[in-house]
Amino acid sequence: QVQLVESGGGLVQAGGSLRLSCAASGRTYYTYAMGWFRQDPGKEREFVAAISWSGGNTYYTDSVKGRFTISRDNAKNTVYLQMNGLKPEDTAVYYCAAKRTTKVVTTTYEYDYWGQGTQVTVSS
What we know:
Elements: E1 2-7, E2 10-13, E3 18-26, E4 33-39, E5 46-51, E6 58-60, E7 68-73, E8 78-83, E9 92-99, E10 113-114, E11 118-123
Parallel strand pairs: 2-11
Antiparallel strand pairs: 1-3, 3-8, 4-5, 4-9, 5-6, 7-8, 9-10, 9-11
C-alpha cells in the first residue's frame, strides 16, 4: 500500500503560480509512475501530467503544455506540479496518483493509488 498526500493548493489570481506537492509513504521502495489529475464538480476526472519512475519521461495534456511542469524527487518520495500562467479554467481539485510501473501512465483507470486532493482556485 502507498499513501499519497497532496498539498500546495489555494486561491490565486489569473496569471499567477502555484506548486503542488504529493508526498508518498508506505511501500515506496517499489518503482512507481506518478500522475496529476484534476476534477471539477459534475465532471469526469481528467489527466493533467505524468512522470515515469526515473523522471526521464513526462507527458502533459495539451491545455497545460508550456505552463505546467511535473517533476519528482525520489529521495524525498515526493512529486511536484509547478503551475505557471494559471487560468480560471484550471480551477479544480487536483489529485496525485501512483502506479507500480517504470513507464509513464496517462489514464485514470490504470492508477492504483490516489491522494485526497487539493483545491486550486484561479480568479479572473
